[in-house]
Amino acid sequence: MSRKKQYIEEDVVEKAMHLFWVKGYEHTSLQMLEKQMGINKFSIYSTFGSKDGLYIESLKLYRQRVGILIKEIEASNDAVLAIKAYFYKFLRLSAGNGLGKGCFIGNTLNEIDANADLKIVEQVEQFRHDLRHVFCNQLLLKNGKEKKIAEAQADYLMISMIGLSSASKVCTHSQLENYIENIFKGL
Amino acid sequence: MSRKKQYIEEDVVEKAMHLFWVKGYEHTSLQMLEKQMGINKFSIYSTFGSKDGLYIESLKLYRQRVGILIKEIEASNDAVLAIKAYFYKFLRLSAGNGLGKGCFIGNTLNEIDANADLKIVEQVEQFRHDLRHVFCNQLLLKNGKEKKIAEAQADYLMISMIGLSSASKVCTHSQLENYIENIFKGL
DNA sequence: CTACATTCTAACCGCGCAGTTAGAATGGCT
DNA sequence: AGCCATTCTAACTGCGCGGTTAGAATGTAG
């Protein structure tokens, strides 16, 4: 069946993801992607169709990676503690040399506007929905909170997570730690 | 002294500011600016020098507008209450028809990367520094908090504010209200 | 009324971008 | 070995961007 691909899809998507994650969609050009991924435009377009297509695959890969951390919330039997641990794990994921990269989904949320690609919006919404669902369900099941309370706290934690994402790009580790501790003080 | 300008600078800066605020720096083209400001490229460049120059003037105008709200924190004699009120006032400032515009400074913070114009970075840093300073000083003076505590709480509130900025662009009013109430629960 | 500094109009420029394509290189088939 | 579908290389295209500029329009000062 003819020639074989000289790269592994997941490998090049991972490289693209890191570039998009750090630089954002707009500030990542195809030139940079070619260089970072080690393949050229033709290969990118024949495999992913478009820059958007590659971005979506990067989002999916990120969701997959973070999905592992989310599963750990579900595995715990104290939701509040597990979510707090998740916040700290996220910090480790975001951390680079010096300032953090933020949450790739959070960065995307901040970059997109009304006329963004619907597939991209969908990925972001799905992630937010899934995470909120886990927060809410675990608070309900593991900590026995009332439904109304659990929902409100899940909303609160979701927004706090968005803040942590942005903050991780400009704040010191001790400021971020202090932030997380304060978030959970009232719960 | 020759011909007079057919527009008032602050008027056109205000229009530019709203465009930058809603669409961000990158997604605002000079074409849009010409249309919205009602003057053409030549006038923009002769008055502001560059797109960056106009953006910086927009940031300054925004800081001036928000500065009024910050003064109200200083005028109060209960820092926590006044800061909470500031959060709600910000929501009104951000609100549009439907979802909010966020904080213009916060949006800028999320958009810029390492190689952004230094003048822009400076505006953002100045704003953050000023706001943190007011939070910290007021908590110290009006609520008699210890210096270490006041600083930690000021950091916490600063990051919460960043979160509120992003969240105001994607969350409902009741979610945002719930968020603010939770932020201040622990203080 | 004239002179002239300044603003405005509108056409223009070079650049980097996302996306395309012709043709060479490759390697699993029979 | 040789076919041929597929991948790869590299040059190309059209477009919108930020930014520039010549020349017409305008208003004040003498």
From TrEMBL, chains A, B:
Boundaries of every HTH tetR-type domain copy: 6-66
Entries under SUPFAM superfamilies matching the protein: Homeodomain-like (SSF46689), Tetracyclin repressor-like, C-terminal domain (SSF48498)
Ranges of the DNA-binding region feature: 29-48
Keyword DNA-binding: yes
Regions that span the bilayer: none
InterPro entries: Homeodomain-like_sf, HTH_TetR, Tet_transcr_reg_TetR-rel_C_sf
Keyword annotations from UniProtKB, A to Z: DNA-binding, Transcription, Transcription regulation
PROSITE patterns in the cross-refs: HTH_TETR_2 (PS50977)
Record Pfam families: TetR_N
PANTHER family linked to this entry: TRANSCRIPTIONAL REGULATORY PROTEIN (PTHR47506)
Entry protein name: TetR/AcrR family transcriptional regulator
